[in-house]
Amino acid sequence: MLCCMPGVAFVPALLVSWSSAAFIISYAIAVLAGHVEPLVPYISDTGTKPPESGIFGFMINISALLGVITMCIRYLLIEKQNESSHFVTSSCNMFSLCIGLMGCIGMGIVATFQELSVPSVHDIGALVAFGSGVVYITLQSIISYKSCPQWNTYFVCHIRMAISVISCIAFIPMIVFASQISMTKIDWTPGEK
């Protein structure tokens, strides 16, 4: 079984490294090209105009694929651990996987449909990616607590739950402020809202 193969832990590490590189590289190119201000632009703003849009789209689609692989490995690992411990229902594990896969599809939508080209599709993809991500992280935290102490330490569970709580807290203002924006553009003049 894939989850029992030594060395699969490199996949989540690759996911984090690749995703970070995608954001940093597209940000650097966007700033150097003068397409965004260097002080805290939206991630999507750094992938809107060529040439950074192509790099951003390509790298985020690879990140979405790595996310799918990571979530499938996690699903298989929990299934294997659950054979001996029965700490979570198989349907709960499958539901968590499906929610995570929805988030990866949302990432693919965000990467494919740039913010200024097709804003409504981009925004729906972002909502699906972030919303599903928050639910997936929370479900995985709960599953981790259920598997304690045999498969996880409480320290790891507490860290996962802290990340879940921070994600939930960050998601709420994202929705509130995004709903206040009536149009999507990068360059603003001082007289505009």
Automatic annotation (TrEMBL):
Residue spans crossing the bilayer: 54-78, 90-112, 124-143, 155-178
An example Gene Ontology CC term for this record: lysosome
Membrane-topology annotation of the record: Multi-pass membrane protein
Major subcellular location class: membrane
InterPro entries referenced in this protein's UniProt entry, alphabetically: CWH43_N (IPR019402), DRAM/TMEM150_Autophagy_Mod (IPR050911)
GO biological-process terms attached to the record: regulation of autophagy
Domain called CWH43-like N-terminal: residue spans: 8-183
Top-level lineage group: Eukaryota
Subcellular location: Endomembrane system
The entry's keywords: Membrane, Transmembrane, Transmembrane helix
Family: Belongs to the DRAM/TMEM150 family.
PANTHER family (alphabetical): DNA DAMAGE-REGULATED AUTOPHAGY MODULATOR PROTEIN 1, FASTING-INDUCIBLE INTEGRAL MEMBRANE PROTEIN TM6P1-RELATED
The protein, known as: DRAM1 protein
